[in-house]
């Protein structure tokens, strides 16, 4: 199966809710926040390219064992299933969210 164990896990993430898509008002760029297992865990996701979780770094980038992590897949599924909150924000706020991730 293309997504393996990540498909079922991504569906669980979608079912639990809390996925937010931030859309830059000027550029239309999108950045997702996807919840992790613990309430304090929130991952920044570009569904086709990046997730800030450890699984993305180890399984997708490092070992090439997966096409994407469960958070990337959950962001895609939530969008298609219309189970995502969409928030329009200024592009500077998107940049701030990314910078916070770098500092964290």
From TrEMBL:
One of its GO terms (biological process) is double-strand break repair via homologous recombination. GO terms for molecular function: zinc ion binding. GO terms for cellular component: Shu complex. The lineage of its organism: Eukaryota, Viridiplantae, Chlorophyta, core chlorophytes, Chlorophyceae. PANTHER family: ZINC FINGER SWIM DOMAIN-CONTAINING PROTEIN 7. It comes from Volvox reticuliferus. Keywords: Metal-binding, Zinc, Zinc-finger. Pfam families: SWIM (PF04434). InterPro entries: Znf_SWIM. Residues 43-80 form the SWIM-type domain. This is SWIM-type domain-containing protein.
